[in-house]
Amino acid sequence: MGGQDSYTLGPGDFYTITVHTPHALEAGPDGARVLTMSSPAHFVDLIRRAGTPEADATPDTEWDLALFDSITTELGDTILGPPGMRPADLPDHA
Asked: What are the backbone angles phi and psi of residue 9, rounded to the nearest 5°?
């Protein structure tokens, strides 16, 4: 798949993102609820350690990007760009 591919998923839909595939996820204007499964479960560990449970979030809750970067480095993940960046926006993947 090239960096220009885009898929819109609705309730009950699913999509498989294979390992080493540059990707981004974007919620619609009403937000999104997702169930993500990964194997090995590194992504689950990342979200558990860096995320804020919805019940604990406030309008002032912000990303702790230093923590996120530290954990992704520890897990061997590669962040392609800042939040909001899409793989197609990156010079190496255009």
From this structure: -110, 145
pLDDT tens digits along 24-82: 788 888 888 877 777 777 888 888 899 999 899 999 999 888 998 899 888 877 777 77
Q: Is 58 within the bounds of a domain?
A: yes
Cβ atoms within 10 A of the Cβ of 3, count?
A: 16
Output the CA–CA distances (angstroms, integers) from residue 4 to 1, 56, 72, in the order listed. 8, 36, 25
Tally of domains within the chain: 1
- Structural tokens at position 77: 């993940």
Q: C-alpha distances in angstroms, 53 versus 39, 49, 57, 79?
A: 22, 10, 6, 22
Whether 28 is in a domain gets the answer no
